[in-house]
Amino acid sequence: MDTYAWMVRFAELVSADAERLTRLDSAIGDGDHGSNLDRGMRAAAEALSADLPPGKVLMTAGRTLVSKTGGASGPLYGTALRRAGKALGDASEVGAAELGAALRAALEGVQELGKAEEGDKTMVDALAPAVTAYEAAAGEGLATAARAALDAAEKGAEATVPLQARKGRASYLGPRSVGHQDPGAASTVLLFRALAETAASS
Amino acid sequence: MTAHVGIVLISHSRALAEGAAELARQMGVGEVEVRAAGGAEDGGLGTSLDLLETAVSEADQGAGVVVIADLGSSVLTTRTLLEDREEGGTEVVLADAPFVEGAVAAASAAAGGADVAAVTRAASEAWDFRKT
């Protein structure tokens, strides 16, 4: 698994979708998700180089996101990537099983930091099912598992539409948060789209 | 002179953090280091881990630092800072407290010589200041 290509692709997808993410966040949050994550991932992509070991790539991307993003997505995605990178350790090659453990560590890091459960209308609603689907398909190889994770993330993000937010700025809206997709879940889909595309082409 | 516990106020808004710090400093009677970490690095709305790190080190007089945060990413940014801190440094704690009332209560307690645990408790007790 080429984690460098994964992160660069994630940065491209966030950039391409920044306006849509910000629009989703304007409906139920503070309207900065797309621009913040775009700024953070641009800085992260610049800080990376292809010759770093896979785990180090994710840790560097995570650290850059934490300091450069400026909103809640910085600490959350930053923690996810740093935990994933830490789980990969110094390995020079990353296979389907190792990546599964890294994704699980990322989910745990996000939940520890943000205290969100599934159903709270957050990025966890896309991330948790994606990790579970990945693990279930990991035996069939990286590309298949990554594709399964993407499908689950998309379904999870779509399922946030009717939910009432219990975490983040959207929770201040109460029932008015119903009827909109959670922007963090939407950007999590992009993380898994980038993974699936990278895994498919390797 | 014994060192006082330092206070750091982190908010999405630079003006809000600095305004709350102004109020808290008044209660700190010139003895408590109250630092604001408000807004993003460019001064717009947001939170910055780098600004928070600077504020914490400036507020630290050797007796520890209590951080009071406003919304969402202020809390997450502070938790991230705490996770990254190495063992053995001065104690830094995130208080579960309302932003303005907690800041004022924390600065008052710190000025009275309270330690980190007592300042944190004073900040949390500010939830009980009912207004009606």
From TrEMBL, chain A:
<dbReference type="InterPro" id="IPR004007">
    <property type="entry name" value="DhaL_dom"/>
</dbReference>
<dbReference type="InterPro" id="IPR012737">
    <property type="entry name" value="DhaK_L_YcgS"/>
</dbReference>
<protein>
    <submittedName>
        <fullName>Dihydroxyacetone kinase subunit L</fullName>
    </submittedName>
</protein>
<dbReference type="GO" id="GO:0005829">
    <property type="term" value="C:cytosol"/>
</dbReference>
<dbReference type="GO" id="GO:0004371">
    <property type="term" value="F:glycerone kinase activity"/>
</dbReference>
<keyword id="KW-0808">Transferase</keyword>
<dbReference type="GO" id="GO:0019563">
    <property type="term" value="P:glycerol catabolic process"/>
</dbReference>
<feature type="domain" description="DhaL">
    <location>
        <begin position="1"/>
        <end position="197"/>
    </location>
</feature>
<dbReference type="InterPro" id="IPR036117">
    <property type="entry name" value="DhaL_dom_sf"/>
</dbReference>
<dbReference type="InterPro" id="IPR050861">
    <property type="entry name" value="Dihydroxyacetone_Kinase"/>
</dbReference>
<keyword id="KW-0418">Kinase</keyword>
<dbReference type="Pfam" id="PF02734">
    <property type="entry name" value="Dak2"/>
</dbReference>
TrEMBL record, chain B:
<dbReference type="GO" id="GO:0009401">
    <property type="term" value="P:phosphoenolpyruvate-dependent sugar phosphotransferase system"/>
</dbReference>
<dbReference type="InterPro" id="IPR036662">
    <property type="entry name" value="PTS_EIIA_man-typ_sf"/>
</dbReference>
<dbReference type="InterPro" id="IPR004701">
    <property type="entry name" value="PTS_EIIA_man-typ"/>
</dbReference>
<dbReference type="GO" id="GO:0019563">
    <property type="term" value="P:glycerol catabolic process"/>
</dbReference>
<feature type="domain" description="PTS EIIA type-4">
    <location>
        <begin position="4"/>
        <end position="132"/>
    </location>
</feature>
<comment type="function">
    <text>Component of the dihydroxyacetone kinase complex, which is responsible for the phosphoenolpyruvate (PEP)-dependent phosphorylation of dihydroxyacetone. DhaM serves as the phosphoryl donor. Is phosphorylated by phosphoenolpyruvate in an EI- and HPr-dependent reaction, and a phosphorelay system on histidine residues finally leads to phosphoryl transfer to DhaL and dihydroxyacetone.</text>
</comment>
<protein>
    <recommendedName>
        <fullName>phosphoenolpyruvate--glycerone phosphotransferase</fullName>
        <ecNumber>2.7.1.121</ecNumber>
    </recommendedName>
</protein>
<comment type="subunit">
    <text>Homodimer. The dihydroxyacetone kinase complex is composed of a homodimer of DhaM, a homodimer of DhaK and the subunit DhaL.</text>
</comment>
<dbReference type="InterPro" id="IPR012844">
    <property type="entry name" value="DhaM_N"/>
</dbReference>
<keyword id="KW-0808">Transferase</keyword>
<dbReference type="GO" id="GO:0047324">
    <property type="term" value="F:phosphoenolpyruvate-glycerone phosphotransferase activity"/>
</dbReference>
<dbReference type="InterPro" id="IPR039643">
    <property type="entry name" value="DhaM"/>
</dbReference>
<dbReference type="GO" id="GO:0016020">
    <property type="term" value="C:membrane"/>
</dbReference>
<dbReference type="Pfam" id="PF03610">
    <property type="entry name" value="EIIA-man"/>
</dbReference>
